[in-house]
Amino acid sequence: MENLFVGLSSQDTALELSGQLNVLAASLMKISNDLRWMNSGPLAGLGEIQLPALQPGSSIMPGKVNPVIPEAVAMVAAQIMGNHTAITVGAQSGTFQLNVMLPMITLNLLQSIEIAANASVQLADLAIKGFTVNQANLQKTLDVNPILVTALNTVVGYEKGAAIAKEAYRSGKPVLEVALEMTDLDEATLKQYLNPALLTEGGNPKI
Question: Can you give the residue ranges of every domain in the chain?
Answer without folding.
Answer: 4-134, 144-199
